[in-house]
Amino acid sequence: DTISVIGLGYIGLPTAAAFASRGKKVVGVDINPHAVETINRGAIHIVEPDLDVLVKRAVEEGFLRATTQPEPADAFLIAVPTPFKGDHLPDMKFVESAARSLAPVLKKGDLIILESTSPVGATEQMAQWLAESRSDLSFPQQAGEQSDINIAYCPERVLPGQVMVELIKNDRVIGGMTSLCSQRASDLYNIFLEGECVITNSRTAEMCKLTENSFRDVNIAFANELSLICDAQGINVWELISLANRHPRVNILQPGPGVGGHCIAVDPWFIVAQNPELARMIRTAREVNDSKPHWVVDRVKAALADCLTTTGKRAADIKIACFGLAFKPNIDDLRESPAVEVTHLIADWHSGETWAVEPNVHQLPASLAEKVTLQPVDRALKEADLLVMLVDHKPFKAIPADQIQQSWIVDTKGVWR
Ligand code: SAJ
């Protein structure tokens, strides 16, 4: 039996590799020829621990192959991005084109699983697109248990940086369009899954994925709101949270410069888009988290003003060092990162030098490189006038307190408190 994975990104490629490592024949499909060519060489085009070894072995042993055009298979997994199209509305164009592109190669008995984060109803919509685009009209297009193909929604829930572990260990929510669809999808994941397959319908599974990330967003927003309140009240928010968390039923998350990544800052808006009147707390949480970078920049402006009055220096002579660019600690992923946003905003306003300190990258993105220079930790600690802590990477946490001589520090992670 052949398994085809459409979309070879952060979710599709690890999933393809997981099936291939269990001796299944996997054909990966991606519209990006660079990704296809890289994978067929046995290499990877994304950063994720342990994935490189797995892909290399799978390609060498002939279990994994990539292509730009869908081919016939017995099971298809769709793991393409679902970004925004303007105004926080979900854009399903990649799911639609993936579905339409595989319709011509479908045959009776095939299983199609959607994994991409999607609004409620997306799986029914995908079934519609498939039905419209099918060329094998010899099979009657029937709904429900009579349908000649099986469709399910099975969201991924892996944490970037730990994908290969969580892919196998986490439980899977299986949202089949019928119970036969769910059964077949469960059988497929059980090829590599150590966690449990939990069966529900497709709409509940779609909402479940959105709910998980909204839960985290709302809880981070609570921590971020506390950090603003504590700042106004002269209270150390990290001490406060650790004290409150000693209550047996309180477990507050950590504040920071904002919420980044491709999921938590996006998925809650899918709920808001479909329920604008009802999703009041979910929307507010998004607004609280999205406004945090601006609040941080206001703190930096205040610190600079104080520095200028105290030292009598000119702003143009002040070096501001931003520690961390990644969207969370101990990774190198800068996409949708609040730390990058804060650094941009500082560099746009500050007349002196703005430095970025990010041990996990060797080159700044072009837009940042125009106005910011990448500096080593030591130099920033010695020469910068104002320090801005944005990401609590391990090496930053390890800096001994006596090496931090600066009087002006804006610490969004409570590392140098
Ligand atoms: N963050 C905080 N405070 C915290 C925890 C996180 O400010 O206490 C920030 C991080 O710094 C980062 C953002 O939130 O900017 C998101 O980071 P994360 O580690 O919470 O999550 P992601 O985006 O790496 O992965 C999430 C996970 N979802 C949940 O934990 C509910 C993952 O399991 C999902 O599979 C993934 O989204 C996804 O693909 O949807």
From TrEMBL:
InterPro entries: UDP-Glc/GDP-Man, UDP-Glc/GDP-Man_DH_C, UDP-Glc/GDP-Man_DH_dimer, UDP-Glc/GDP-Man_DH_N, UDP_ManNAc/GlcNAc_DH, WecC. Its EC number is 1.1.1.336. Keywords: NAD, Oxidoreductase. It comes from the Bacteria. It is an enzyme of class 1 (oxidoreductase). Residues 321-417 form the UDP-glucose/GDP-mannose dehydrogenase C-terminal domain. The keyword Oxidoreductase applies. GO terms for molecular function: UDP-N-acetyl-D-mannosamine dehydrogenase activity. Catalyzes the four-electron oxidation of UDP-N-acetyl-D-mannosamine (UDP-ManNAc), reducing NAD(+) and releasing UDP-N-acetylmannosaminuronic acid (UDP-ManNAcA). Homodimer. This is UDP-N-acetyl-D-mannosamine dehydrogenase. It comes from Rahnella bonaserana. The lineage of its organism: Bacteria, Pseudomonadati, Pseudomonadota, Gammaproteobacteria, Enterobacterales.
